[in-house]
Amino acid sequence: MTTSSLIYILIAAIIAFMVAFFQYYKKKKETNYILLGIRALSVFAILLLLINPKVKKTELTNIKPVLNVLVDNSQSIRFSNEVNSVNDILNTLKSDNSLQDNFDINFYAFSDDLSVKDSFDFNDSQTNILKSLSSLKKINKENGATILLTDGNQTYGTNYEFFTDKNPIYPIVLGDTTHYNDIRILQVNVNSYANLNNKFPVEVFIQYEGNESVSKVFSVRENTTTVYQEKLNFSKNDNTKRVEFYLNANSVGIHHYYCSIERLSNEKNTFNNQKHFTVEVIDEQAKILILSDVIHPDLGMLKRSIETNKQRKVYVENNLNKNIQLNDYQLVILYQPTNKFKEILAKLITEKHNFLLITGTSTDWQFLNSSQPYLKKNYINRTEEY
Asked: Which residues of 360-380 are buried (b: 16+ CB within 10 A; e: fewer)?
């Protein structure tokens, strides 16, 4: 209730008493005093209704702040022999009476996401620290701190270094936090298929972490045979190499390759020094048909140039009346077409086959302009003499 309301109530009480007093003060009977009191209360009640004071009731409740304990439940904790350390920390938190009296403690396990747990088995295969912290931020909006027990090894997700929260986060780092020099194969880019008797490209990215300059040999093996080898120089500033090379596809089938980079003298993690990749070599020849009703030396030159790629086989056909199976060819080349090509060209367009037009002095442009929609040419029926 506000101060002004109290003043109005006090004034109303005085007015109610004065009104009743002036009505009954001349009368000496004892009943008049009772009527004076009733009249004063009645007037005061009416005035109180007119004032309409607002009464507010305030209750204070003491709520303990929240303390969230997030425990990394991934296999890397077990791998680094930190299970006992985690259990010791949890037992200390649970047995501390001061913490229990002053905080509402919640225990969570996290791997690929967040879950409520009191016991932990450390068998999860993935770790996404950022997603777990974001999930906690959504479900727990009260003021409170977070204790994060983890080895910091995040297997996927956005980098948790960019996570922000108004509530403090206190990490307890598990495992060996010493930084060791490391060299690793980041990525291998290669096509899954290659054509027989061709060369296929391979691209490899290698990264070095360290301050000293080192030289290491990168090699690629197929079974026990080394098919590629190169010496690479790394330094603190020049720490990433992009290696490009070609391998021969000499036989049909699935070929397994093993690429590796030499380990450093003090390197702890050597699992990332190697990667495997597979390539399937297939034997497929594209058949190309050249149709022509003239004899020209360009035909032989065209055939030889195309067949320099061993995955191409060229067939030359001069008999346009022959029953040609167009589905047997991946490409049909029409050399200087005339009106004799009418049925063939119509069939190519109708059945949507791949075809290529080569024109010259013997080309019938009147026929070609009217028989296909892809190109038009203005022409004159004259041959230029040189």
From this structure: eeebbbebbeeebeeeeeeee
Query: Identical fold at 66-173 and 286-371?
Result: yes
For 182-282, give the CATH class: mainly beta
What is the spatial distance between Cα 370 and Cα 348, in angstroms, rounded to a whole number? 15
Q: What is the pLDDT along the chain (386 residues), one digit of tens a residue?
A: 677 777 878 888 888 778 877 777 666 666 667 777 788 888 888 887 877 777 777 788 878 888 889 999 888 888 878 888 888 998 998 899 988 888 888 899 888 888 887 778 888 888 888 888 888 888 776 667 889 998 887 777 777 777 777 888 888 888 766 777 899 999 999 999 998 888 999 999 999 999 999 999 999 999 999 999 999 999 999 999 999 999 999 999 999 999 999 999 888 888 899 999 999 998 877 899 999 988 888 899 999 998 887 778 899 988 887 888 888 898 999 998 888 888 888 888 888 999 999 988 888 888 888 888 888 888 666 655 55
The domain made up of 66-173 is a member of CATH 3.40.50.410: yes
Angle of CA points 100, 106, 110, to nearest 5°: 145
Domain borders along the chain are 3-51, 66-173, 182-282, 286-371
Q: Give the global pTM.
A: 0.47
Tokens representing 369 are: 């302009």
The correct answer on CATH 3.40.50.880 for the domain covering 286-371 is yes
CA distance 269 to 276: 17
